[in-house]
Write a structure and sequence with these properties.
Order of helices and strands: EHEHEEEHEHEHHH
Strand content: 15-25%
CATH architecture of the largest domain: 3-Layer(aba) Sandwich
CATH topology of the largest domain: Rossmann fold
Number of helices: 7
Shape: elongated
Amino acid sequence: MSKAPRWRVAIVDDHERSRAALRAAIWAAGGEVAGEAMRRGDAKLLVERTKADVAIFAVGLPDGDGIDAAADIAGGYPVVLFTSRTDDSLVERARAAGVMAYLLKPLRPAELAPALDLAVARFGEVKALRARLDERKVIERAKGAIMRRYGLSEEDAFQRLRRAAMDSRRSMAEIARALLVSESVTGDVPAK
């Protein structure tokens, strides 16, 4: 039985020498190359098709910018930027695009595994935080609906939601979503 790879990596870089260095470092670190592309236009399709765990994008691509390509997928996949440039404006653009880590060319193989591990871990944390924030928003909307409907205080509305969640052994977010769906069907609260 073969061991699962540490990560499945999509590579988007138009330089064969860079891709070869990445492939060798990925394999040496126990990873697997899920696929490769050389153009920005192919980046999103590659990552989605291969269901890579992490993507490595070069900044300069023949048909566009790797940071823009990273922004296209950063909500769904962790992206590591691979470049020789370190200017502040590039780093800020990468941060704003959702890039999770940075690798400098020429590649030093010892830096690859920590960068990919960090990117995957950070992405997981960000995804979990977004989910918690979304749940919190749903709970707040449901609490508001209960307050309006029954004339309760914020604390009393919260306690009702909490009690319903405990009684049904479901999360407060599940109860809140169900309440909001019910309210939207009866026309009491506008659905969002």
